Amino acid sequence: MTVESTAARKPRRSAGAKSTAGKRTTAKNAPNAEPELVQLLTPEGERVKSTEYDKYVVGVTPEDLRGLYRDMVLTRRFDAEATALQRQGELGLWASLLGQEAAQIGSGRALRDDDYVFPTYREHGVAWCRGVDPTNLLGMFRGVNNGGWDPNGNNFHLYTIVIGSQTLHATGYAMGITKDGADSAVIAYFGDGASSQGDVAESFTFSAVYNAPVVFFCQNNQWAISEPTEKQTRVPLYQRAQGFGFPGVRVDGNDVLACLAVTRWALERARSGEGPTLVEAYTYRMGAHTTSDDPTKYRADEEREAWEAKDPILRLRRYLEVSNHADEGFFAELETESEALGKRVREAVRAMPDPDHFAIFENVYADGHALVDEERAQFAAYQASFADAEGGK
Ligand SMILES: Cc1ncc(C[n+]2csc(CCOP(=O)(O)OP(=O)(O)O)c2C)c(N)n1
């Protein structure tokens, strides 16, 4: 059974949301821009028809939808556990994906096993879709491994913190796929802030010129730490693609079904030799940039509250309920599964060794380096300065 549209009545739109079928609005910072938003599920959980993108989700069954919901719920549960573990001193840092579950699960579930993913440091939902065990991600944030998984095991590259650099790696990998004559594709994740990096512009140029099978998936979560998107661009980000010679589209990043459809479309283009696509998933970082950040210093509570009304999990739940695709038993079982995941992750992290504070100085240069030696000595002296505070331990 396939999923029917429940939008026999005219779709309602929430404040700020613009569907492709609806009225165009002009971004206040971009006089000539007319941003459109691909949306298949409204924040109220109503199915919106799309002449262009419905065909990419036509085979999505109620079971598939429950699967997408489960992915998002478990990812959010895992993410909440990781934030708590950082607060308890078990992790050095955590970069929460709260609010971005639909963008990541929708795009992640559009991929084939032989496709290759280049993530940033926030793609926990995509890692989940690729089968990377969540505890492996946490080992890196605890400082006890240098990545924690074999990139080739799941075709999921290591987390990349050098902003935007992975788009170049993705482009090179995609060019290699073409040379191999394969029909797999590459997806590169990056943020709105990264879009200002030269690396991203270079990867757009190369991928366009070489017709590389790569999907640039930009999660515009509105903030690059404390910098708002209007400080990154004068035009909607997806429109940048046009200048490089390939299509760009803005999708409602809190709508998992639309993210699935749009990513499938972009991957299909890549596979069929049509080259790169820029997908701008318009979403919101509901939490802090990382656990080292305090967003109350630079953004208003009302902004977050407005986005909470567009919560990606809530909207799919509403759709599942109204269309009778999931019953109370399903939600209850998922709750139990979520708690079990939290417990498993918690126990696994607590069982991990403490990080070796000096490991950071290793593997920088094969033969060592005077500057690294100096820094190591400085750090040793700094640590020794706490000896008294710890009772001479
Ligand atoms: C090349 C480089 N410059 C600066 C930084 C510091 N930095 C870390 S995250 C970040 C903001 C990234 O914002 P965005 O690309 O929007 O992604 P988000 O964190 O919002 O997901 C910056 C500037 C870095 N890691 N790498």
From TrEMBL:
The enzyme's E.C. designation: 1.2.4.4
Region named Disordered: 1-36
Pfam families noted in UniProt: E1_dh
GO molecular function, one term: branched-chain 2-oxo acid dehydrogenase activity
Cofactor dependence: thiamine diphosphate
Keywords: Oxidoreductase, Thiamine pyrophosphate
Enzyme class, spelled out: oxidoreductase
Dehydrogenase E1 component domain location: 70-351
Keyword Transcription regulation: no
InterPro entries, per the entry: Alpha-ketoacid_DH_E1_comp, DH_E1, PdhA/BkdA, THDP-binding
The keyword Oxidoreductase is assigned to this record: yes
Official protein name in the record: 2-oxoisovalerate dehydrogenase E1 component alpha subunit
